Amino acid sequence: MQVDAALRRPRRLSGEGTWQVGGLLIACAIALPIVAVAWLAIFPSENIWPHLFETVLWGYIDTTLRLMLGVAIGSVVIGVGTAWLVTTTEFPGRRVFQWALMLPLAAPTYIVAYVYTDLLEFAGPLQSALRAMFGWQSARDYWFPEIRTVGGAIVMMTLTLYPYVYLLSRAAFLEQAGVTREVSRTLGAGPWQTFFRVALPLARPAVVVGMTLALMETLNDFGTVDFFAVRTLTAGVFNVWLTMGNVGGGAQIALVMLGFVVLLILLERLERRRRRYHALATRHRRANRQRLGPRTRWATMAACLAPVILGFLIPGAILLRNAVLFAEESWSSRFPDFAINSLLLAGGAAILCVVLATFLAYAVRLRGGAVLSGAARVASLGYAVPGAVLALGILIPFGAFDNAFDGWMRDTLGVSTGLLLSGTVAAVMFAYVVRFFALSYGALESGLGRIKPSMEMAARTLGEGPAGTLFRVHLPLMKGTLLTTALLIFVDVMKELPATLLLRPFNFDTLATYVYQFGSSEQLELSSLGALSIVVAGLVPVILLNRMVARDPSEVI
Amino acid sequence: MSGGRVGRGIAALVLLALAAIGSAAHAADEVNVYSYRQPFLIQPMFDAFTRETGIKVNVVFAEKGLVERLKAEGRNSPADLIFTVDIGRLADAVAGGVTQAVQNDTLESVVPASMRDPAGHWFGITQRARVIYASKDRVPLDEARALTYEGLADPKWRGRICTRAGDHAYNVALIAAMIDKHGEEDAKGWLAGLRDNLARKPQGNDRAQVKAIMEGQCDLALGNHYYYALMLQNEEQSAWAASANIIFPDQDGDGAHMNISGIAMTRAAPHRENAVKLMEFLVGDLAQKMYAEQNNEYPLRAGVEPSGLLQSFGDFKRADQSLADVAAKRPLAIRLVNEVHYNAGPSS
């Protein structure tokens, strides 16, 4: 009998070894740049810590922690709140909000920060209008929040980063069987109690992944905090590396930042301990969405509308205005090429990341082991390293490999192979995979975690091997998570800047690098068209996904 | 969908993506530039060079890490030239061992000695001045014209000065110049005095400081000279510029602090001859004129006039400090910025 045969088949023949080895190889390759940064950190040109310790270190840490705390709270409140509303309640425009709430993700944070600074500063239209209205003369006549502050940076980052939390917690809420909530309600819990005591704890791994991603983005951001002159540890990295000429010292600070992230993840895991959050069953009937009274309905709409307006419509409108006003100066005939480069890179990276992360996450699930899951953790840290530093971590091993191989070929065959990997699109692509691996791995790991082990036990008992179980059981169950993850990576790669700048081949531009040359020379007007095209290119997959969702009755994007 | 089909589809897509993108130019008659300057600023000059010589110029633009890239690429690096603004980056490249000396009569005769490396590792191409912007309404022109960098620490300016962050390269170079001129102790005292005079926590870019003058937040601001020209040429921003006078400091003393955009040859330079041709071209009449007109920077070649707009700012005395010496003081400068907590602003 088939079942008997499956049960008797020895473990090593079932193909799990391939998964272990493959997973380890993937994890090591992706962890390589982090290791290279650590290598850099061993050789500082001088010990910078006494100086930093006596001067700005505590200020950097204080600012960094406040920024992280603010972004964590802001993105979780907005992300989880809106995700809960669009999945469990019924209100006008809900279908539109489902995808519209993702839109702020498409805009690079530093561009949004530029836009809001123009809008909100003293000479901006808002304050000018207020002065005209109330007859105020100077800044001393009234109080207005200053945007170039830690608070301002928190708001900017929350507005562009909450979609990480939104997307992942929404996927989690959708995958929760509706019956779970119905049972909770039947047992007498109100909607708030159901949310806090049933749905939120079940969605916790996904929420935490989303929040961690938002925080890692916060840590690796330099454009926004630099423009606001908010001095975080990232500023310290670049001051020590670029101005003091001490790349090792800069790498040390980057590692300290990684320490923050590791600590955060450990604390959360420690608190979660051995609790597991498997869905009762997936693909269950959805619970009916709650119909709201007229007043609650409007409040719900407003709550969902606000982040979309602030994070997308306002900056988008201003970019559109500039793009139209300065269309002639900012248009380049190479624009379509840049767009194609961006789209191909983003699409390729999204696919690669999802495939590799699925492989690794499944390998860990099959038979974790401390080595493999440890390597997977290290591999997921790239996201928290400032992009330019991570790029260094790629330059070094690639350059070393190229030169070693070239030297060997010269010695043995008398031919020079030159640089095979350095300065190629492959290096750029590798950077994306390393940088955004955390995104895909975190999301897929939490997606896999929601599938009960009994599901695969059943599949394996019925004779499926590990690969067959993955393709025929897990992947169909996590279709929503897979698509969401690919979308996140696509949009992030569209915006990625520092690693692309440093690693790319000659004469190679993406939309993001093209935008940046104007942005960095303080010409927001000229960068608007490009920035807008990044946003538009980011919209296309959002809308496509939404269509797929509309056709799919499970409605899991 | 079966696993095999998905796998094959993905592999094909990835290959397609890589193949479609990988199109590096490999012509023989070319020169490769790693540039810290934005392509749109330099492309016109490179295009003119290609028209004149038939040599194609390939560019990678990045703001950070090109020296590290050169180091990693080692002897196989395809780059011939490093193109940059700010003396600090040139100094870093030399210190990183990724440059080589160039002995060339044209370059040495055109570029003044203080604006190139004594050993020939880098050459200035254009100059930019770090100037003071003074409110037209609140700072009388006579008083403004007498300003020096040292005078910015005078308590009479308390709460009246705006600057961008102290650790920005432009400010670091100015502070390094002050250290070079006055020694570390005096420079530190000066920087602390300047910090006390700030109207607000350092923030924004150079243009934002001029904007702050218009808004009445401050009366004096530090900035690079060409932003004044750029603002005047911009419909929306010309009002900002109109609220301030451009003041070249220290005209009765050493003159205005100058920085450069410059060029260095990499150690690996596979197209050495073409690279020298491009260097010579960039200090030639045509390129210097284009630079002056398009970017509103001061040409280094004697006899090439600055743009009409720059000429309207008037002639001025430029500090003749050795930039190599200034560059050497940069690490110290950033330490001073940290030690006086410049970026925390006036309240600290």
Brief overview:
The complex is a heterodimer of chains A (557) and B (348). Chain A has 557 residues and is mainly alpha-helical.
SSE blueprint and pairings:
The complex is a heterodimer of chains A (557) and B (348).
Chain A: H1 2-8, H2 16-42, H3 49-54, H4 57-88, E1 89-90, H5 94-100, H6 109-120, H7 125-134, H8 150-175, H9 178-186, H10 191-220, H11 223-227, H12 233-243, H13 247-272, E2 290-291, H14 294-325, H15 327-330, H16 335-366, H17 370-379, H18 387-412, H19 425-449, H20 453-461, H21 466-477, H22 479-495, H23 498-503, H24 511-519, H25 524-551
Parallel strand pairs in A: 1-2
Helix pairs in contact in A: 2-13, 2-16, 2-17, 2-18, 4-8, 4-10, 4-12, 4-14, 6-8, 6-14, 8-10, 8-22, 9-10, 10-13, 10-19, 12-13, 14-25, 16-19, 16-22, 18-19, 19-22, 20-21, 22-25, 24-25
Chain B: H1 3-21, E1 30-35, H2 39-53, E2 56-61, H3 66-73, E3 81-85, H4 87-95, E4 99-100, H5 105-110, E5 123-135, H6 141-145, E6 161-162, H7 169-182, H8 184-197, H9 206-214, E7 220-224, H10 225-232, H11 238-242, E8 244-247, E9 257-266, H12 272-282, H13 285-295, E10 298-299, H14 308-312, H15 323-328, H16 330-339
Parallel strand pairs in B: 1-2, 1-3, 6-7
Antiparallel strand pairs in B: 3-9, 4-9, 5-7, 5-8, 5-9, 5-10
Helix pairs in contact in B: 2-13, 7-8, 7-16
Structural summary, described in words:
- The complex is a heterodimer of chains A (557) and B (348).
- By secondary structure, chain A is mainly α.
- Chain A has one domain (17-328, 335-551): MetI-like fold (Orthogonal Bundle), CATH 1.10.3720.10.
- Helices cover 75% and strands 1% of the residues of chain A.
- Chain A is built from 25 helices and two strands.
- A two-stranded parallel sheet of chain A has the order 1-2.
- In chain A, α12 (233-243) packs antiparallel against α13 and α19 packs antiparallel against α22 (479-495).
- Chain A is globular and about 80 Å long.
- By secondary structure, chain B is α/β, with parallel strands linked by helices.
- Chain B has two domains: 28-127 and 258-308, Periplasmic binding protein-like II (D-Maltodextrin-Binding Protein, domain 2, 3-Layer(aba) Sandwich); 128-257 and 324-344, D-Maltodextrin-Binding Protein, domain 2 (3-Layer(aba) Sandwich), CATH 3.40.190.
- Chain B is 45% helix and 16% strand.
- Chain B is built from 16 helices and ten strands.
- Chain B has helices at 3-21, 39-53, 66-73, 87-95, 105-110, 141-145, 169-182, 184-197, 206-214, 225-232, 238-242, 272-282, 285-295, 308-312, 323-328, 330-339; strands spanning 30-35, 56-61, 81-85, 99-100, 123-135, 161-162, 220-224, 244-247, 257-266, 298-299.
- In chain B, strands 1, 2, 3, 4, 5, 6, 7, 8, 9 and 10 form a ten-stranded mixed beta sheet that branches.
- In chain B, α2 (39-53) packs antiparallel against α13 (285-295) and α7 crosses α8.
- Chain B starts with a helix and ends in a 9-residue tail after the last helix.
- Chains A and B meet through α3, α12, α16, α18 and α19 of A and α1, α2, β2, α3 and α4 of B.
